[in-house]
Task: inverse folding
């Protein structure tokens, strides 16, 4: 198989790699491997045990842990105007290339192959390409077979919610403790603009009647999950002029019913996709519109801001997709699960994240103390591990943080084309990257050439490689100090 073994260096830096070797040789358990010493103050112990290694349910965990999706559930019982079933389900994925659909047995083989090669793997999700609860037999069979092979893998389901109430008890019995429901409205009149029809109880419903049934089933499913202590995330697709203002109401409703997280995602719409919204020219929101809505939602249901709208066959850390390395044709017919790499990696992460959390807290405190109402938006080139550790020219996304009176907070990401290919980059690519970074004040990376640095500066974006391999928050606190003339923190590289 072509899949490279992930090196600890690529993720976190050489210093931590040495620790991994020591840890693996000693076979010992890091003092904080249970995760208790890294628990944030605002999360109780039971919840923390569920989210500490889930890259979507914990922003902090997404620096260290990976998810994979298996595309076993192609059938769907709802028609969304942003989907035409030729592409992955837009509930949890980016419209793009059609997935390789798998049977449950093929899915088990793929999960073992990924677990043997990707030590960060912690979660198996089923997110389509149709609906995981409507195509229930395949979802259930896949989960049952996978947990027999890899019992510690967390199970995660994404659904439009229509069939969800029928399966909540089975989800609880299978220890599925993370469920995502896509809820785009709580008002059927708005719902009718998003869903032309649903298929429910052996018949098809249209318009407002369809949206009303869908709404009632979504609310019922959410309440049932909350009553059983299953963590729920609500995904909402932001559709300007259709439901953008209404999502404030959605946020309130789902919070009342116990939702753990609310994830507002931008509509992805393109005439080439052939969807209804694509064909009528319905636009999606731009990055600043997204941020403005998310800022208005602060104080309601807790927001997820690090979603990457990944495909129904995505594999890897959230900012990367290694799915193409694990196509069925590349996976051996017979495979045995080897727990070694995942176990060693977990030991490494337990120690690293304890250091990182201490650094985060110190950096956030320094910014809060120093802040005089000024804020900075900072784009960070990183390949994981919570550090500034990617070259500007190699970055395919920049993680965006805001430093302000509220401390240092992850507020989103900007996807870009890779600038440097084979040692040099195209001017047109640099123009598009510069446009994608609109509104960002400072870019942090491990290395940047003069040409991109000058072009960014001309657009009002200051780029620096002075904080390479530092923790992201420590670097941001130092930049904040330099910008506003306050005392900097010590580096953590
Ligand atoms: Fe997959 Fe979704 Fe589970 Fe995560 S994705 S089923 S909760 S394991 Fe995550 Fe991807 Fe965003 Fe989904 S980044 S689209 S929120
Ligand atoms: Fe498409 Fe998913 Fe909507 Fe079904 S629920 S129509 S697969 S976006």
Result:
């Amino acid at each position: 198989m072509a899949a490279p073994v992930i090196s600890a260096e690529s993720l976190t830096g050489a210093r931590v790699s040495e620790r991994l070797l020591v840890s693996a040789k000693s076979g010992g358990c890091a003092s904080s491997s249970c995760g208790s010493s890294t628990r944030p103050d605002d999360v109780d112990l039971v919840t923390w045990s569920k989210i500490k290694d889930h890259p979507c349910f914990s922003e902090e965990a997404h620096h260290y842990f990976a998810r994979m999706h298996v595309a076993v559930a192609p059938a769907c019982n709802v028609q969304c105007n942003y989907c035409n079933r030729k592409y992955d389900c837009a509930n949890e994925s980016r419209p793009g290339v059609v997935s390789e659909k798998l049977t449950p047995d093929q899915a088990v083989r793929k999960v073992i192959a990924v677990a043997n090669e990707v030590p960060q793997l912690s979660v198996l999700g089923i997110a389509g390409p149709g609906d995981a609860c409507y195509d229930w037999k395949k979802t259930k069979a896949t989960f049952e077979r996978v947990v027999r092979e890899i019992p510690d893998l967390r199970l995660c389901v994404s659904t439009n919610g229509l069939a969800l109430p029928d399966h909540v008890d089975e989800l609880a019995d299978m220890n599925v403790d993370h469920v995502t429901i896509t809820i785009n409205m709580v008002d059927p009149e708005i719902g009718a603009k998003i869903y032309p029809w649903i298929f429910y109880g052996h018949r098809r419903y249209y318009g407002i009647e369809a949206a009303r049934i869908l709404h009632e089933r979504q609310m019922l499913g959410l309440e049932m999950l909350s009553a059983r202590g299953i963590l729920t995330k609500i995904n909402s697709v932001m559709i300007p002029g259709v439901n953008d203002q209404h999502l404030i109401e959605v946020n309130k409703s789902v919070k009342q019913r116990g939702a753990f997280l609310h994830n507002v995602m931008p509509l992805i719409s393109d005439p080439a996709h052939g969807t209804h919204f694509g064909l009528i020219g319905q636009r999606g929101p731009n990055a600043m519109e997204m941020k403005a809505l998310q800022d208005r939602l602060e104080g309601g249901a807790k927001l997820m801001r690090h979603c990457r709208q990944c495909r129904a066959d995505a594999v890897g850390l959230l900012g990367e997709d290694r799915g193409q390395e694990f196509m069925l044709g590349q996976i051996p017919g017979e495979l045995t699960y080897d727990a070694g790499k995942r176990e060693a990696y977990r030991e490494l992460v337990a120690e690293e994240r304890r250091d990182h959390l201490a650094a985060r807290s110190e950096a956030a405190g320094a910014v809060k103390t120093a802040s005089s109402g000024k804020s900075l938006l900072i784009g960070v080139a990183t390949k994981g591990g919570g550090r500034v550790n990617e070259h500007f020219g190699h970055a395919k996304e920049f993680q965006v943080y805001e430093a302000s009176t509220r401390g240092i907070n992850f507020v989103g990401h900007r996807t870009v084309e890779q600038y440097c290919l084979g040692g040099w980059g195209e001017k047109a690519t640099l123009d598009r990257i510069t446009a994608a970074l609109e509104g960002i004040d400072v870019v942090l990376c491990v290395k940047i050439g003069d040409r991109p640095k000058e072009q960014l500066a001309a657009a009002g974006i200051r780029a620096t490689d002075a904080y390479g391999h530092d923790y992201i928050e420590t670097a941001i606190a130092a930049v904040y100090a330099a910008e506003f003339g306050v005392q900097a923190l010590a580096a953590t590289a």
